[in-house]
Design brief:
Elements: E1 15-17, E2 24-25, H1 26-36, E3 43-48, H2 54-62, E4 68-71, H3 79-85, H4 87-90, H5 110-122, E5 127-132, E6 142-147, H6 150-158, H7 173-194, E7 201-204, E8 212-215, H8 216-226, E9 236-238, H9 246-250, E10 262-264, E11 272-277, E12 280-285, H10 286-292, H11 294-298, H12 300-306, E13 312-318, E14 327-329, H13 333-340, E15 348-355, E16 360-365, H14 371-382, H15 390-393, E17 394-398, E18 404-407, E19 413-415, E20 419-426, E21 433-436, H16 452-455, H17 465-471, E22 477-478, E23 487-492, E24 499-506, E25 510-513, E26 519-525, E27 528-533, E28 535-541, E29 545-548, E30 554-559, E31 565-572
Parallel strand pairs: 1-11, 3-5, 3-6, 4-5, 6-7
Antiparallel strand pairs: 2-8, 7-8, 9-10, 10-13, 11-12, 13-20, 14-21, 15-18, 15-20, 16-17, 16-19, 22-23, 23-24, 24-31, 25-30, 26-29, 26-31, 27-28, 27-30
Helix pairs in contact: 6-7
């Protein structure tokens, strides 16, 4: 079946053109450029983000014939010692760890670090220091940073890549991801951010044997330009046990795949950004922008409140012709802070982009249920003794296109089958406590993780039918904004949540102010829209998420190649 009455123009690879700058593509070009910057006695630093293919890069290193090579693996503590040091943060749980707020140097052998530094001082001929954290040894005469996006790292985990400096090749993906998410990526981002001003070059290593290198000036100018204009991150898509068929058509995906369950389209912490340098496309983690231009992107208020973190997330959940999501609940702020070291939690909402007639959303508890009875049934179901009767305990509301269901932390919820959800939430998406998964195995053939022990400690038992209907189901009302005559509706989120969402129904042109905070938007209806302001005109297509940096004071949105559009905008409340 077709979900659209027009041909989708959804762009899976949105690019930003950077004029008058170049990129070096391939190891030959990179070799010749770096060779031209070297002299006898030069110290070259190749610093890596964990996940970079070190064997591949070493083939480049061998071409230089350095007199002294210093490999960072010889300076880090051994893998067993590192794992023991991480034990508190890794935990015994398959999914959840605790945020690590230390530094890369915490896992370095200080004596070996000092020994390496002394070797460089004594060496009169050319030296290379290479590997994760290489700049801890020396900034060198030429400093090259080899970068990588987190999604590509996850794909490499699936193909058997281990975490950094350990031999966990066969460990399940959830545990590899946990180590990356809670520890490796945190300290790697902190290290990278510290040395932005020291880079001479940055290399995109996302595609095997197809590196692209840009100069430090090009890197900085590109990120600066992006912080002054609308842009999109590069979405990625993944199948799932409950996945649907909607995204295949609308997002122009591989029709031969069984399903696509979810997509990140607007999660700078996870997504990447693409730059076009005269036809050479360079991919960088979107976090580079967040870390390098936080005030310009986020605004002073958000930066002072959250630091260099992007606090809003848009993603897709596709159950069209699929199955129910798992029944779940998210932790309260106090709980996530005490147990996982996060300063805010995953309040969220479901905006229904599309739905079939039988689509529903499970949300909140029915009146008069007994908490002990519900938990007992969940635990019995988890042991395989019964099938959990979700309809006995959880409200089930019909869901239609453009409905908006609000889900403050502590509220039991899930989307049913035959819905296409634009999920709008605060960023820490990993903290989902699954309560019931409808007797399913994951795509890996293993039972999907269930967290009843966590869940029962955060469920808000007073969020029952009447309260949910009044507060969380289409709590929509019209609002006025100065300079705007289009229809504007507040659609969420709940007063317990820090994100505001508004829907604009636009026939001519609508006027918007950022008020000094980043705006995240999605074109939820209509073929395409034109965004204009003090930047080059920017076109977005149906279902695309786009970001307006805080540095843009005002902008307009109007229909493009269609008569009417609906745009959903999210921002952090003052």
């Amino acid at each position: 079946m077709s979900y659209l009455n027009f041909k989708s123009e959804y762009d899976r690879f949105p690019k930003t053109t950077i004029k008058n700058h170049k990129a070096f593509r391939g190891y030959d070009d990179i070799y010749h450029e770096l060779k031209s910057k070297m002299n006898n006695g030069s110290v070259i630093v190749f610093d890596y983000y964990p996940g970079v293919d070190e064997k591949e890069v070493y083939e480049l290193i061998k071409r230089f014939n350095f007199s002294l090579e210093i490999n960072m693996h010889d300076i880090f503590k051994d893998g067993k010692t590192m794992t023991e040091q991480m034990k508190y943060n890794l935990t015994d749980d398959r999914v959840f760890g605790r945020m690590y707020y230390g530094n890369l140097v915490d896992f370095i052998d200080e004596d070996k670090l000092e020994e390496a530094q002394n070797k460089i001082k004594e060496q009169k001929e050319s030296v290379i220091v290479y590997g994760v954290g290489a700049s801890l040894v020396s900034h060198g005469d030429v400093y090259v940073y080899f970068d990588m996006a987190r999604w590509q790292i996850q794909l490499r985990y699936r193909k058997g890549m281990a975490n950094y400096n350990v031999d966990n090749y066969d460990e399940e993906i959830l545990k590899k991801y946990k180590r990356g998410y809670f520890i490796e990526w945190r300290i790697a981002d902190k290290h990278k951010e510290k040395y932005f001003e020291c880079f001479d070059y940055v290399v995109d290593t996302n595609k095997s044997n197809d590196p692209k290198m840009i100069s430090s000036d090009t890197f900085k100018i590109s990120l600066h330009q992006l912080s002054k204009q609308p842009f999109r991150t590069v979405p990625y898509f993944d199948p799932g046990v409950w996945g649907g068929q909607w995204m295949k058509e609308v997002c122009n995906l591989d029709k031969d795949q069984p399903n696509y369950a979810w997509s990140f389209d607007g999660v700078p912490e996870e997504n990447s950004i693409l730059f076009d340098y005269d036809g050479v496309i360079v991919e960088l983690p979107a976090m580079d922008l967040v870390l390098y231009q936080p005030k310009e992107l986020l605004g002073e208020q958000i930066y002072s409140r959250f630091g260099a973190e992007f606090p809003i997330r848009f993603d897709f959940l596709d159950t069209m012709e699929g199955q129910n999501l798992s029944l779940q609940v998210h932790p309260l702020t106090e709980y996530i802070k005490k147990n996982f070291g996060m300063s805010y939690t995953q309040d969220e909402s479901y905006y229904i982009l599309d739905a079939k007639e039988d689509a529903v959303v499970y949300l909140g508890l029915k009146e008069g249920i007994q908490p002990t009875e519900m938990i007992s049934d969940l635990e019995s179901a988890q042991r395989g003794e019964i099938v959990f009767d979700a309809d006995k305990y959880i409200n089930k509301f019909p869901a239609k296109k453009h409905d908006h269901f609000l889900i403050p932390a502590g509220t039991c919820h899930c989307s049913g089958k035959n819905a296409m959800v634009l999920e709008i939430s605060a960023t820490p998406y990993i903290f989902t406590f699954k309560l019931w998964d409808w007797q399913r195995l994951g795509l890996d053939g293993l039972p999907r993780p269930i967290h009843i022990e966590h869940g029962k400690q955060v469920i808000q038992w007073d969020r029952t039918t009447d309260w949910v209907k009044e507060n969380l189901v289409n709590a929509t009302y019209e609002v006025k904004e100065e300079g705007n005559d289009c229809k504007i509706e507040h659609t969420g989120l709940h007063e317990l949540e820090f994100i505001e969402t508004r829907r604009y129904t636009i026939n001519n042109s609508s006027y918007h102010q950022t008020h000094g905070t980043v705006n995240m938007l999605n074109l939820v209806d209509g073929k395409s829209a034109l965004i204009e302001g003090d930047f080059e005109p920017f076109i977005v297509h149906y279902a695309e998420t786009f970001i307006i940096p805080a540095s843009i004071k005002e902008y307009t949105i109007k229909p493009y190649d269609c008569d009417e559009i609906k745009v959903l905008k999210a921002y952090v409340r003052s």
